[in-house]
Amino acid sequence: TMSSDPNLPDGPATFVGTVYKKSQGVYTVRAEDGRRLTCAISNRLRKVLIYPTAAPTSLHHRVQAVREIRDLDPVAVGDLVRATLAGDGTGLITEVQPRRNALTRLAASDHGAAGRTSKDGFKTQVIAANVDQIVAVMTAAGPAPKWELLDRYLAAAELSGVGAFVCLTKADLLDEPEAAEELLEEVLVYRRLGYPVAVVSAATGAGLDEVRDCLQGRLSVFVGKSGAGKTTLLNALQPGLGLRVKQVNAVTGKGKHSTTHLELFDLDFGGQVVDTPGMREFGLDRIEPDDLAYGFVDLRPYLGACKFGLDCAHDHEPGCAVKAAVAAGQVSERRYRSYLRLREG
Questions:
Q1: Three-state SS string across 9-49, please?
Q2: Per-residue pLDDT tens digits for 261-309
Q3: Facing residues of 274 across strands?
């Protein structure tokens, strides 16, 4: 929407929209009516202004300090932003609206980006903002699913305030009855926890309608290791989409920690997707071990009910409500072991 800033009666026109694409300091902002604006970022957004709390009426006169932000980039795809229009048809992003949520990871800070690093030499990197769900893509067969990796993705989503949808690809390779039965048992565990799970074959088309239903009208971030079948799945959902995403990833994935180019892709049936190449680091990097259990929805009801309350690690302590729930069959033993291994490391 074009408007004049109400705080600047004679000031420049502004443009409000969503960041659809970012590439090495250049952002594409799209308004609700579909208009696009190529933008740079205001230097002021790269700093956090620290004001005194005593005199709120005169805040803008009395900036006490300027602190470099911890983020590598204060603007992410999915952000709702306000940009000031320049005379040449471009814009300058001056404001980022508060986020509903953000998917983050750590990034090595060895490429000279401005900003303060943490003591271990890493910075926070926002992958995408205002996300409706992550889509965890894993193979149902060839190779068998790595359930512990899925538990890591789901815990990270829970702790980021983001929904999750599980997509098991290559179901046509599932030819052994035992493997199929084992898969179904685990699928039921996740479905009982409230996670939608689609078992999909791009080759036969099985499960694709279910995936479309879960993606429609939502902003979805795809996560999953290389070889999980994301490109094939996206092509099956929308011809050519996987190829377009892959071309972006070929640019993005060159550096281990590089997400210099990210883009939201529109789905013909409604919604947007963003893929996350090189996402080995996505997940639980800065989660305190004591917070991890909250990312497991099946453990959550028992937290605080242990003999040692919230100080319980749910490992070796006596009187642990979580261990009792596992023993009683109320919590999946495999999920519990997954939690313990993630906590260790």
A1: CCCCEEEEEEEEEEECCEEEEECCCCCEEEEEECHHHHEEE
A2: 889 999 999 999 998 765 555 655 667 777 889 999 999 999 989 998 8
A3: 221
Give yes or no for a contact between 15 and 2, defined as CB atoms under 8 angstroms apart.
yes
Q: Tally Cβ neighbours within 10 Å of residue 22.
A: 23
What are 95's two structure tokens?
Answer: 């404001």
Sequence-distant (≥ 6) Cβ neighbours of residue 333 within 8 angstroms: 326
pLDDT digit string (tens) for 20-72? Answer: 999 888 999 999 888 999 999 988 887 755 545 544 444 444 444 555 555 56
Q: Provide the pLDDT confidence category of residue 88 given band limits of 50, 70 and 90.
A: confident
Neighbouring residues of 2: CB distance < 8 A, sequence distance ≥ 6: 13, 14, 15, 85
State whether residue 142 is helix, strand or coil.
Answer: coil
Count of CB atoms within 10 A of residue 203's CB?
A: 13
**H-type helices in the chain, by residue range?**
147-160, 177-192, 208-215, 230-237, 241-252, 289-292, 321-327, 333-344
Tokens found for residue 132? 């409706």
pLDDT of residue 280: 52
User: Could you give the C-alpha distances from 263 to 14, 79, 276, in angstroms and in order?
Assistant: 23, 12, 10
Cα 313 from Cα 111, distance rounded (Å):
38
If one compares 2 and 165, the residue with the highest pLDDT of the two is: 165
Q: How far, in Å, CA of 34 to CA of 17, rounded?
A: 9
Q: What is the DSSP string of 204-251?
A: T-TTHHHHHHHHTTSEEEEE--TTSSHHHHHHHHSTTHHHHHHHHHHH
Strand 133-139 and strand 80-85: the pairing is unpaired
Residue 135's identity, in one-letter code, is V
What is the pLDDT at residue 325? Answer: 96
For residue 270, the one-letter residue type is G
Per-residue pLDDT at 321 = 95
Which one-letter DSSP state was computed for residue 257? T
Q: What is the pLDDT of residue 122?
A: 56
